[in-house]
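Dear H.,

Thanks for agreeing to be a second pair of eyes. The structure we're designing against is below in token form, covering all 334 positions.
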């Protein structure tokens, strides 16, 4: 079965063709990073305009690269939320129109489910149940995937998302958007010797908090500036990264131990972070837990993960929607 995936929830316009939820035939991504970099973050209005500009070209390229035509496609899957409303509207409207005109089924995909499915594309044998740690620009959460389409929330952030904290700290350190990869790059040259807020980890608490750590870094930078002291940005990045990744890594492993599941799947943009990967590998190995990460190009937003999630929803007869009814949604509870 061939599923056409469409993603436009933030600053990537992407269209993909995926066979049977596992094999990528094409995954075309038009990134707007260079445009938003000029403003230090994603400007929603500019994102929407660029999706409008790019979506038809990206769609044509995705079909061409997969060597198929729209007639070969069995179903259309689109991210309907969560994300920036104006950005979502573009992909959703494009998918609705395609579905309406061709009569092919339309599947509404939750962006987070897409991130989780990124792992099915990387590991052909991976199957639920497993514990999943979601670490993105909008979410920090632990869920239990009972099957391909049923998830139970284990814990979530009480304030900011981890990616949001990376981006904010990057900006305060004078680094470009997107902050996460640049903080990681700076951290590689520094030492994690500043203790911002080493919160004690409670074994059965699976919620996260990032606003305290973020504020502690900002205060540290402001205080140093006021005193006219020179700050070693590499050390700040290394120390922040250490504490930010400690929290998710420790809780993810504890969640596996508590649920009795030996598979831990990581998803979302921050899963590209090497410090997090190394830490998880070490902690999980000690406990006999196997860790799965999407390959690097599938960590951040792309349509292949949406097509894969769409395929499993279609098989489960879930979220197959009337194209006339589908509405983009900016916030969806996990
Ligand atoms: O999943 P994603 O592409 O978009 C959302 O759905 O939110 O995640 C984007 C987030 C951004 O906050 C970005 O800074 C972060 O992922 N990110 C990273 C790295 N690569 C991307 N954070 C830390 N280290 C990285 N290497
Ligand atoms: Zn995302």
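And this is the sequence the design step returned. I haven't edited it by hand at all.
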């Amino acid at each position: 079965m061939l599923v056409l995936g469409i993603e436009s929830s933030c600053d990537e316009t992407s269209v993909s063709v995926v066979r049977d939820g596992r094999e990528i035939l094409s995954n075309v991504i038009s990134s707007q990073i260079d445009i938003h970099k000029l403003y230090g973050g994603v400007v929603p209005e500019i994102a929407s305009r660029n999706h409008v500009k790019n979506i038809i070209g990206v769609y044509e390229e995705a079909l061409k690269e997969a060597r198929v035509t729209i007639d070969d496609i069995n179903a259309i899957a689109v991210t309907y939320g969560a994300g920036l409303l104006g950005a979502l509207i573009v992909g959703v409207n494009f998918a609705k129109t395609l579905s309406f005109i061709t009569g092919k089924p339309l599947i509404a995909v939750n962006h987070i489910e897409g991130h989780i499915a990124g792992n099915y594309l990387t590991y052909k044998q991976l199957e639920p149940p497993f514990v999943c740690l979601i670490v993105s620009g909008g979410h920090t959460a632990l869920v239990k995937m009972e099957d391909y389409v049923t998830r139970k929330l284990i814990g979530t952030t009480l304030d900011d998302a981890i990616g949001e904290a990376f981006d904010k700290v990057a900006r305060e350190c004078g680094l470009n958007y997107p902050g996460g990869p640049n903080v990681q790059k700076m951290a590689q040259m520094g030492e994690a010797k500043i203790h911002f807020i080493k919160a004690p980890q409670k074994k059965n608490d699976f919620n996260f908090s990032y606003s305290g750590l973020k504020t502690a870094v900002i205060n540290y930078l402001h205080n140093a500036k006021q005193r006219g002291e020179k700050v070693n940005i590499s050390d700040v990045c290394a120390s922040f990264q250490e504490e930010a990744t400690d929290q998710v890594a420790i809780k993810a492993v504890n969640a596996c131990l508590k649920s009795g599941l030996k598979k831990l799947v990581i998803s979302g943009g921050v899963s590209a972070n090497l410090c997090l990967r190394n830490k998880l590998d070490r902690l999980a190995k000690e406990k006999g837990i196997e860790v799965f990460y999407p390959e690097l190009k599938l960590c951040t937003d792309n349509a292949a993960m949406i097509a894969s999630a769409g395929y499993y929803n279609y098989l489960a007869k879930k979220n197959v929607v009337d194209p006339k009814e589908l509405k983009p949604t900016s916030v969806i509870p996990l």
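Two observations from my side: Residues 187 and 238 are 4 Å apart (CA to CA). The domain at 2-116+299-321 is CATH 3.30.420.40 (Nucleotidyltransferase; domain 5).

Warmly,
E.
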